[in-house]
Every structure is written in structure tokens, then in C-alpha cells.
From TrEMBL, chains A, B:
Pfam families assigned: CoA_transf_3
Lineage: Bacteria, Bacillati, Bacillota, Bacilli, Bacillales
GO molecular function: transferase activity
Record keywords, A-Z: Transferase
Listed name of the protein: CaiB/BaiF CoA transferase family protein
Keyword Transferase carried by entry: yes
Domain of life of the organism encoding this protein: Bacteria
Length: 394, 394
């Protein structure tokens, strides 16, 4: 079956996380991803742990379905080959620091002369405009600058990093949207364009409700720890063994909860009658509920809540996530055979398309694995390719 | 100037956050979003604070650029009007609990009979397949089930919620990608398809590096608090006034850092010589650096680090984010006039397109503001529309 983006060609210069995450999504959905890597070790992420049989599982996760071409873009012949490839690609994707491609003589202004319909997508820390444009950014830095760390964690505690590289990953997602929107536009106009996505901008874009709260109150929202900011009780509690989420989102569920906790008197308690009452007496309610919830195990409580239809859940660690029946039923944990590392567990594809579903067909490539395939398309012979290798161009 | 998705028509049945976030992005990029709301109060988010002059700023943020049509989908005439609209739309987007559209007689199987090229996108908590499919999910619940809470926060501390609704928002982003991929496919085939995106699946998809670590070690990764898991020093420190991030990502930067901290002897200290040494002696180094960093203000340290090119940053609260020069230069904070609420601050558009940029042209609609405009397209007269209103269908 054809995949949704089959036929789309992406020349992918990205390294590490934000860019490779974007090209992974495009590749999962069927685009051909030609990953252009330096002949001197390739993508830095090839050197990031954890390793199996010397292969980076970090890299294997992010680079499935891609082809690898080595190319020394600092040489004239390397640039020439790159420009040949640009002629016949839909998308060029890069996540260098702004200005790097121009220094190589391969900036968008140059590439669009060669291929006016090319979509040039740049994912960077601060974007291609503005006073911070030339600075390097890392996930921890944009999480700090962009506000999310000030909202994560507990009141009066230390600002807390989100436990996944959300700065890189959201930037990857917005970059994919920008590319697909530009490809859509091109169908009408025939013209390509530049897509400029900054990690910092994406952090601002995901704050949304915090900005609304600041705009109205004039005060920066504080971290709310483990609770819903305005629905009560909707929070994390400790049972006798594990933490659980309990979410009694309306008065009906609240009354059911009072029965399960054997505190029918709370229904008439003026501190807890409405959601507004419960929210303003949250500190008291938290302590009172905490004393009761600590008396049974997570499993026992979750069964009781489940029976009465009160939304609740365990807090899963990664081991429990990868074994969760819904996660497995949705094929969100897949295993792929890698020629060196063996069978590798990785996340599946969260975009489920009924007619042209994505798939994971090829393991992450060895460095330069597809040099021949790709250069032969351009008319290079096997012996030309040997010469290019010897010259350090491939 | 035409916007990238100009001409694309989206019939948007979504409420609250995940779905409206997706249609906001499509609308920012130029798609026409017809938000179909119940006549009885509309999108629940219209009732969510904070409020200005009685209008929800939460709703205003998420529903810019959209048109509002009220429609009672439980009536025959309401369904009939909806099906008329389906004939001439590119996308139907909904975030009901799975099965709801089928109960209304408006499931994908029905809609595709009427319009085989329609893209039907469903954003739900657990997805349209699997044993948990029919359950309700909330952001806090998928953050708990999906693993990210187990990775956020401090070792031996409580599992910590990400301070933005990342469960909803990432689901919105993947839904947009699914829609645009399906629209792309349709250009070739003429056929639409169903796009099924689950909040829980998206949580798994953004864990990536944690799954790799689990796959290799067999142990669930622990929360790492405020530090990079493998680069040292790359962490949050407290200065004499505010928290800051310091990121000396390689040996060269480490040596510069030693000089700034006036601890040249650390360069030769066997505990700190290489990144691996520093990582395995992190607890000691953290304390030693902490003692020095607390002696100057954040501003003083950041200037010293900036001068030597050591990546560093403050931890901004929302007030500082919305005033940050790079955020402003990138137009990531915009102000829009709302007819009732006045001038409202909101996040800008993080996808910067050079030729067909997105824009924020219209404030969030009043409930049913576009009833006439949309129904007149279908041939209804003003008096027909009055009758439909009186009958409670609009």
C-alpha cells in the first residue's frame, strides 16, 4: 500500500534531535529521507548512548526509515553533488546554527536559484531573525528561557525541567507542519519557500493557557505541582504503595468519591460543596483525602474508582508504559531488527491513517550506507564513487 | 497575500484544548475553520477562566481565526445541515469520545458515503481502537499513564506534572500532521481517509530517548531533576537571587568555566577531567559549583558566561517570557482586539513561512456569529435561519 507521503523527497542535513525527529515523522509517513552526513563520523547522535554492540540506540530510534549519504560539504565536489541532489528534491531540511548554510554557499537564496520549487526548512534554537538568532540553544536552555520550567514543579520548589526534550520535539513537530503546509501551497503556485522554526518560539506557543492567565492577572502563573489548576479534586495522591491520579471533575463524581472514601458527610460540608469551594479549600481537602488514600494500595483504589466511573490512573514508569495493554493494542511500542544491534524496541507511529498508514520498514542506516544507491541516480559510476571516497568527499 | 492553507475547509466539532489547538494551527495558516458548536452554550471552554468582561480569555486564545456555527446535532434538521456542509468540506475534525459520532449517525462510514474525499480526523484520549478506547482521558491522566510524569521532577521526589497541557497539545500537533499528510495523499488518489490520533499514543511518541534507555538497561529511567542526563556540568544552579542554567557542554568550555569560577585547579582534578569524570562525580561538583554560584547575582554570572561564550540562561517566568527581546522580535507575543474583551495578549505563530506566512486576522467568534454567512452559502434565507433558531436547531 502506498504511504501518505510516498514520492516526497527530503534532503535531510539535520543532526541530533529536533531535525531528525521531524524527518523521522516524514519518513514514517512515506517520504524518502536522504540523510546527508559528514564523512567524519556523521550525525553526532551516532556517538550518544545507550549503545548495543557499539551502535547508538538513541540514533537508531530517531533515524529509522532513512537513507544515509556521506558528503563533505566543505569541498567543491561535495557541494556540487549536493546541488545536483537539490535539483530533484522537494524539501531541504537543516538544523544548523543560522548562517552556517550561507557560509557553505548553500543558503536558501542559492538553492532556490537551482530549484525554485524547493521547500527549505530550518529548525534552530532561536530562529533565523532577531537579536538572539546566532546563538546556540539546547533543550534545557529553551525550557528555561521559554517559561515552561517556571510552571513545572512545586510551589516554592526549584524550577523543574520537563523530563523529555520537549524543546526539541515540539520544534520538530511544528517544522513538519510548516513543511507540509508549504508543500500544499506549492501545489497551487509551483513555488517553494523557506520554513523557519525556532525552539524558543515553540516553547512560547505551547504555554498558551499560562499566557492567558498572565495577560489577565498581570502575575506570572506559579507551578501547580500535581494538580489541575481549577478542577478539584483532580490531583496526584499517594496510596499505601504507589502514586495515583484521582480526577473527580464534577459534583456528581465528587459525591461518588465521598461514598467510596466513606466520608458521606463531606457532601454537605460547606468547604467542599461546589467545585469552587473545593478549590479554595484545596489544602485542607488534600490532607484529608491523603490520610484516607494512604490506607489502601493503588491497585485497590483504582478498582474501586473504576467501578464507580471516577477517572483515575496509575503513574506509570517506562516499564509499565511499554507493557500497557492500550499502548500495545495501538502498536505504539514496536520492535525492529537492526543488522548490528539486533532487535530494538522503539515508539510506534502516533498518526493512524486508515488508508495509507505509516510504517517502519528500514532500520537506521549505517554511515554512508546508501552512497551508491543515491549517487548512481545522479549518473556516477561505481569507480567514480570509489574515487570520491578516496578523496574524502564521501 | 494568500496563506499556505488558503482554500482548505475544515468543519471543526472540537471542544476545549487538543482539537481546538489543532484547528487553530490550521486556521493560522489560512484554512477556513467552521467551528460547529452546540446552541446550548457552545464549546465548554467558553466557560473556562480567566475572564475579561465576561469573555473567556482561554477560549479567545485558542479560537482566533475561526467562524462559529451553532447546530443541534441531535435533531434531524441539524444533522441534515451538517451533512450538507460535509459535502463541501476538506476536513471534518472532532475530539469526542470514540463512538459519539456513530451514535449521532455521523460517523466516518456515513460521512464518506456523502463525500468520499473528506478527511475525517479524530483526536481522542485513547484512540478509536484498543481496550481503553471508550474511556475518557484528561491531560493529567495521560501524563500519568504515558510515562512523562515518572521522568519529570527530582529523584526520590513526587512524580511531577509538566506545567503545560502537553498531553493535549502534542496530540493537537500530531493531528495537524495527520490531516496535512492525508490531504497530500488525496491530491493523488482523490480519496479521503480517517486520521485517528490518541493523546496516550502521543505521550509515548515523545518519550523516545527514555524508551531507548529502558530498552537497553531493562530499568525505567529515573527523573533527572534539572540536569542533562549525560553532559556535565549542564544544569540549573541557584545564584544569589535567581536560578540559572549553566551548560559547559565540552572540555574547552569546562576549562573556561573553571577560570570564571576561579578554580583553575579543577582542570587537573582527576574527578573532573573529562565529561565522563564530571558526570560520575556530579554530586560533588554540583555542591562545589553551588557554593561559588550562590555568591553573585544571576545577572552578574550571565554576563561573565556570555563574555566567554558559555551557554547559559535565566529561568524566565511568564512575565519575562512575554518581554524577552527575541520572543518579541519573532512576533511570538501578539495582541488582538476582541469586540468585548478588548486587547488580548496571545502567543504568535511559531511556523514562519517566507512567502505565505500565517496571520491572526479575526478574533475568536461569538457563539453562532457566523450562522448567517454559512447557512446562506447552503441556500438558506434569512427567514429560514430565523425559523431554525426558534426551533432550537441553531
Amino acid at each position: 500500500m502506498e504511504k501518505a507521503l510516498q514520492g516526497m523527497k527530503v534532503l535531510d542535513l539535520t543532526r541530533v534531535l529536533a531535525g531528525p525527529y521531524a524527518s523521522m515523522i516524514l519518513g514514517d509517513l512515506g517520504a524518502e529521507i536522504v540523510k546527508v552526513e559528514t564523512p567524519f563520523g556523521g550525525d553526532d547522535a551516532r556517538g550518544y548512548g545507550p549503545f548495543v554492540n557499539g551502535e547508538s540506540v538513541y540514533f537508531i530510534n530517531l533515524n529509522r526509515n532513512k537513507k544515509s549519504l556521506t558528503l563533505n560539504l566543505k569541498t567543491d565536489e561535495g557541494k556540487e553533488i549536493f546541488l545536483e541532489l537539490v535539483k530533484d528534491t522537494d524539501v531541504v531540511l537543516e538544523n544548523y546554527r543560522p548562517g552556517t548554510m550561507e557560509k557553505l554557499g548553500l543558503g536558501y537564496e542559492t538553492l532556490k536559484e537551482i530549484n525554485p520549487s524547493v521547500i527549505y526548512a530550518a529548525s534552530s534554537g532561536f530562529g533565523h531573525t532577531g537579536p538572539f538568532s546566532n546563538k546556540a540553544a539546547y533543550d534545557l536552555i529553551v525550557q528555561g528561557l521559554g517559561g515552561i520550567m517556571s510552571l513545572t514543579g512545586f510551589p516554592n520548589g526549584s524550577p523543574t525541567r520537563v523530563g523529555a526534550s520537549i524543546g526539541d520535539i515540539t520544534s520538530g513537530l511544528f517544522t513538519v507542519i510548516g513543511i507540509l503546509a508549504a508543500v500544499h501551497r506549492r501545489n497551487g503556485s509551483g513555488k517553494g519557500q523557506k520554513v523557519d522554526v525556532a525552539m524558543l518560539d515553540c516553547q512560547v506557543a505551547i504555554l498558551e493557557n499560562a499566557i492567558a492567565r498572565y495577560a489577565v492577572s498581570g502575575e506570572s502563573p506559579k507551578p501547580t505541582g500535581n494538580r489541575h489548576p481549577s478542577i478539584t479534586p483532580f490531583a496526584v495522591f499517594k496510596s499505601s504503595d504507589e502514586y495515583i491520579v484521582v480526577a473527580a471533575g464534577n459534583d456528581h463524581l465528587w459525591r461518588k468519591l465521598c461514598c467510596i472514601l466513606d466520608r458521606e458527610e463531606w457532601m454537605e460540608d460547606p468547604r467542599f460543596k461546589t467545585n469552587a469551594d473545593r478549590t479554595s479549600h484545596w489544602d485542607e481537602l488534600k490532607n484529608l483525602m491523603g490520610e484516607i488514600l494512604v490506607e489502601k494500595t493503588a491497585e485497590e483504589w483504582l478498582q474501586l474508582f473504576e467501578k464507580e466511573g471516577i477517572p483515575s490512573s496509575p503513574i506509570n514508569d517506562v516499564e509499565k508504559v511499554v507493557q500497557h495493554p492500550q499502548v500495545l493494542a495501538r502498536e505504539m511500542i514496536v520492535h525492529q531488527e537492526h543488522p548490528v544491534a539486533g532487535r530494538i524496541m522503539m515508539p510506534g507511529i502516533p498518526i493512524k491513517l486508515s488508508q495509507n498508514p505509516g510504517s517502519i520498514d528500514h532500520p537506521a542506516p549505517k554511515l554512508g550506507e546508501h552512497n551508491e544507491v543515491i549517487l548512481e541516480r545522479l549518473g556516477y559510476s561505481r569507480s567514480d564513487i570509489q574515487v570520491l571516497k578516496q578523496k574524502g568527499i564521501l
